[in-house]
Amino acid sequence: MRLLNYIFFLNLVIKLVFRLAGKSLLKILKRWPFMISKCVLALTENLFNPDASEHIVLGSCSILATQTVLKHLTTDLKSFSAFLLSILTSSHHESLKAQKAINELFVKYNIHFAGLSRSVFRKSGNHLDEPQFSDLVSQIASLSFDTSGLHWRYNLMANRVLLLLTMASRSDPDTSSKILSQTTGHFLQNLKSPLPQTRILASSALNTLLKESPYKIPEHDLFGDFEGNIKSSVEGSMSQIFQEEGFFSETLNSLSHVHVTTDTDGNSSRGNHAASIQNLADKSITLFYFDFSTSWPHTPSWISMHGNNTFFSNFARIFKRLIQECGMPVVSALQRALEEFSDAKERSKQCVAAEALAGVLHSDVKGLLGAWDSWIMIQLQKIILAPSVESIPEWTACIRYAVTGKGKRGTKVPLLRQKIMNCLLTPLPQTVATNVVAKRYIFLSAVLIELSPPRMPMAEIQFHDCLLVELLDNMSHSSAQVREAIGVTLSVLCSNLRLSTFTRNHSDEVGSTEGYTFKRENWDQLLTHKASELAANIQNAGQANSLESVSRDSGLSDSESQDVKWMETIFHFIISSLKSGRSSLLLNVIVDLIQPVIALQETSNKDLSTLAKASFELLKWRILPEPHLQKAVSVLLSLATDGNWRTRYATLTYLRSFMYRHFFVLSRDEKQEIWKSTEKLLTDSQVEVREHAAGVLAGLLKGGDEDLVGEFHSKAFAEAFSIQKKARKRVPSSNHSIALTHGAVLALAASVLSVPYDMPSWLPEHVTLLARFIGEPSPIRSTVMKAVAEFRRTHADTWSIQKDSFNEEQLEVVYMRLLKKANEWYNERSLGDKRFLLPPGDMGLPIFGNMFSFLRAFKSGNPDRFISNFVKRFNRIGMYKAYMFGSPTILITTPETCRQVLMDEERFKPGWPKAANELMGRKSFIAIPYEEHKRLRRITAAPVNGHEALSVYLTYIEETVVSTLDKWSHMWEIEFLTHLRKLTFRIITYIFLSSEGNPVVEALEKEYTHLNYGVRAMAINYPGFAYYKALKARKKLVVILQTVLDERREKRARLGESPKKDMMDNLINVEDENGIKLTDEDIIDILIMYLNAGHESSGHITMWATAFLQANPECFKKAKAEQEEIVRNRSPTQKGLTLKGNSANGLSFSGMQHTVVDETLRVVSISSVVFREALTDIKMNGYLIPKGWKVQVWFRTVHMDPEVYPNPKEFNPSRWDSVMPWNDLAKLEIMIFLHHFLLNYQLERTNPDCKLMYLPHPRPKDNCLARVRRVSVL
After folding, report:
1. Bond into 732 cis (ω within 30)
2. Residues 1007-1040 pLDDT 10s
3. Which of 79, 191, 262, 706 would bridge 276 by S-S if both were Cys, CB 3.0 to 4.6 A apart?
4. Is 0.85 surpassed by the pTM of this model?
5. Which helix or strand (DSSP H or E) is residue 1183 part of?
6. Based on the number of CB atoms within 10 Å of its own CB, is 149 exposed (0-12), middle (13-18) or buried (19 or more)?
7. Which CATH number fits domain 930-1170+1208-1260: 3.40.50.2300, 1.10.10.10, 1.10.630.10, 3.30.310.50?
């Protein structure tokens, strides 16, 4: 014992070792059980003691919660009493951890409680101080009444313990009656408790304890003379309580607060009301609300009009069992309170009144029929006629509870069921509001749900018959709310009739309806025939009177308005039937109503259409068994050919779900008929129907019959291919209607979309053929674009593998044609109908346009292929639309048209690409407006190309050429073009900047190489693109030239003008007629332009002229003879060439040498194209050039045209019979070079057949690798 006390001390006092001490203590208690009682008494003292520290309480709870101690409590009353009382009186502990430990101890006790040993109930005479079980119950009962001094949680614990003890006492007959009587009265009084948690537990306890029901009439004597003399053991104590003045008023008021709590929390509960007052903090305590009764209702209601009620069936059950325990005195005591609360304005009070009345109506006690006649029926009639609508869900639940069948299967008829049904069937006064009428039908639907059709007696059958007549006669009621209630009630009633008929036809049970004739025996035929007739009338009226803008009832005749209302009721009937679990009983009616449901999807009456759509959504997923399936197919096939396109559209929507749900039920013939009907709708006159039919077919193809699918694929491809073939050949008889062509395209689209992630062998051909229709007008074009875009999306993840199924041509069609047409639409959309006047052509891909094909042609060695593709595709018309260098463009390719564009300076202006404008400068000739262009041309002509300026440079050019040719002749192989470019650039920089030999020349030449590559590129300023490098080169060129210009101006200001002038000096000095001089920007941009020409054009032309002459001996011989003649005619005193008139000391500008240069320009086409922009809309050759569009004049196409120049690829200077005189600087350089080359040198090319490059200018890939050989010295 000392060891036990020491360990006990360690467990409670020394915090660090209490767990180890607790384990040791448990081992001792298991070894010596007689010590448990003393241990429990000692530990419970710590819970009683308000001064006990936190760790002492925690240690005590840990030991008391063990299975060993809890098991001992069931046999030791003294320990058991101490244990319970210590928990229930321990609310004084302030520590949260201590309170949590006590709560967990209580929860564990509840979990492990399994009753008490009989020894606990025996009275002990040996020890007078030992507690008695009845005393323990009394003590706990007193604690459960303490609502002010005890925390609600502990009050709830006390009531919970009291219920457990009462249930446990049933095993002892000596104490059971007394304790049961005491505790039931206690819980009855607790229904008025101010604590909502206690009220809830009290209701649960009463439903558990009230089981005797001595006043309940047995089923076999339901309408007999049942006396019921045996009294309940609890009747005496409970009668004293409920007969107190105002008891039930106070009780109902307290119970109504539970509804207020529920409404506030937003919870709706049907029986499981504990959830309305529990929270997370107290979940462990409120978890032990329980109910041993079956849940109600047995089957949930699908009727939305019944609402989300707060009707607590547990409360109704309390009043029912209280009446069955104590008889009619309870009913009498309840009357006054029920009448008061039924008329209350607060919904919570009406809710609890509905629960109490439901218990009264369902109690089936002796004397209840008398109370019905005296006041209950009157009260029910008041409830029906009451105008309030907020509590309709609760009163509906009350009615439903009152007529609910009794017994395990709910087949036993309650005493007042027929009385209630007759009361509800009584017609209402004519003056009542429509919401009261609707409420009555809602109550009737609740009654019908609870009836058992297979066992209905004759009175209930007659009730159905009378109500059916009333419903059918009122289907066109003026109130929408009433019509909805009628439709719902009718669906329940008709399903009851069908279920009753079916059951009686298959059973031998009593209650046969033989000999009874229904007033509306053919109600199903009446509904379906009238619905079809009225649906047709509504459609015809809508089409004839154009009711789209007419509101619901206004503008309609009385008969038309009645038709609409009747159909709304039918739709409510369909919706309710399909939502219920009885729809199979009404399938023959529902199938006959498919036609009105689909036909009235879109009407002038929005409410009617909304109900039709709601019916449609429920109906389309209903599986129809074989007897009804054929009829449904027949109805759908007829609807597919309906004259109203909206009906055809809705039919397609229904067919999609119908085929999916009935795939394994439909016969092959039925599938084929549906398939053919859907295919016909692909060519419907309404585009919405056509597109929807394609979507439906795409779904059917995914899982349809293999034979039908294969046949459809083949047929779709063949029809589309035939249309496309005739369109390509421009067959006059191929003028298919838009609908037929669109239908063929939609069939292809359906095939493509039916395999979203697969790649069957037929798919590439279908996709390619579909993409070929992109050029068709809308809506065909939009269909193609959507279908191809969806194909690309669904095959994106596996495209790297699946693309191998396509050949190169198919890939181009699928991917390029769609994008090209999109680009075409984007650039032409602003033109409106004028776009039809555009010349034919191809605008390429978005952003890039035709640049890819342009670059591909020029890099392939056959640059003429670019234009020849247009000619091949669109014939030789001389004008084509395209998208070049970021702009919509018209390509001009014939001589006459080119001449018109170039000569028309009023309607065309320079229109170079953005890259050229940016790189050459905004003040260069190609970028400035037309007037400014003429001004700069006028004032710079003399300084740059004038006779005086050229005479100044002639000697320098000649000396430089002579020395350079001599230098080359002493070299081995050289890149002839590269050295020529350096030569011409040195000349041009000297002429403009006087910078011969200057390091500036090398810096300029390096940057000009990069600049030139970007002039004819797209303006993409991103690393890696030519324009990006060229733009950087221009910035450097501007810096260099600005530095030179600043130094020149500073030198002129300091020293004055030098007698030796270059072009820069001339540009600084020149001024127009108004005395305006060029700005620095003007000068720099002009210099950049001329230097670029001198760097590129002169060098390339010289190289090609030399190569062509060397490759054509006859031409070379004639040209050389001409130059030799010039030398022979030269004056003996003249050492070089001079510029006089049209000759340069015998150097003729109109002889063989000139024709060589012109033929070189033609064959090589250094400038393949010239850019213009239309200043206004221009019609040319029958086609439109829109304002703002670019125009490209293709010299190369004209130069290579065999109709203009026979054998255009042949170098033939003789084709130039006459030439125009010219004297510009660039040609002067070429003429001087050719003069000295022809006299003294020959060119020996290393690779005469070297392949050519055409960008930025035509040149051999090896830059004309050759050797310059001297042949004579003159």
Report:
1. no
2. 877 787 777 777 778 887 888 888 888 888 888 8
3. 262
4. no
5. strand 1183-1185
6. exposed
7. 1.10.630.10
